[in-house]
Amino acid sequence: MDFDNTFLDSIGIYEDTIKRLMRDAKEYGFSSVKEFSDFYEAARKEAKVELKDSPSNRLRLIYFKKMSLSKHGTLDPKWILRLEKNYFKFFQEGIQVRKKKFEKEYKEIFALLKTIAEKQKLLFCTNENLRTQLIKFGLLFPKTFPYAILSSEEVGKEKPSEEFFAMAYRLVSGEKAVAMIGDSLKDDVQGALRYGIPAIRVQSVFSKTKPFIEEKTTVFSVDGNEREFSYREASDLRTALKLFL
Prior knowledge:
Blueprint: H1 10-23, H2 33-50, H3 60-72, H4 77-101, H5 103-117, E1 123-126, H6 130-140, E2 148-151, H7 152-155, H8 162-171, E3 180-182, H9 185-194, E4 199-202, E5 213-222, E6 225-234, H10 237-241
Parallel strand pairs: 1-2, 3-4, 4-6
Antiparallel strand pairs: 5-6
Helix pairs in contact: 1-4, 2-3, 3-4, 4-6
GO biological process, one term: small molecule metabolic process
Keywords: Hydrolase, Magnesium, Metal-binding
Protein name: HAD family hydrolase
């Protein structure tokens, strides 16, 4: 199962976290919120290009280092680490806010996962660094809960790479992978289908619309040939998990 934007609205939390840093732009030596935003976006885009397909392209610490160089013309370790410290402070507060807001929904999710875990292993497959993911899981999950995590940082490659899914197979100790659940058509759905794993795409973490399951198809290249694959799409995570009861 994927985690970000499948189990947790990570995009929303990341965006809110950066906005909170931007509000304090002058404390970090920027003239305005816009100037902070411009430096941050330039650093982020540069890292994405330089570290394409590498898990490190998601490290905010790298973004902040690049911001220091472009803003000050030199490295300022204390400035960089201060930004990172505040980033993770706001980030964790954002997770706690969403956990409280969706307390009822998460209670239902964990009840479903607990039932599923009695028969099948739960492996969360994520394109993120391990430290960030451990923070998220530590804040959201009960202390005693049967699950495992595989981060792209540990593999050295991101989904939908062959290396990532090969490692995932090893972690489930040779058991047949029942399904991959995720929000990304490319990384989760096509990535899983390419290696013979059934896939379910979720449209949102918690949907307010009427629950639904739809049969879908996707076409992508395998060994140079265009092939069509079937997968299912669910309104949200709870609807997808109920398929395994």
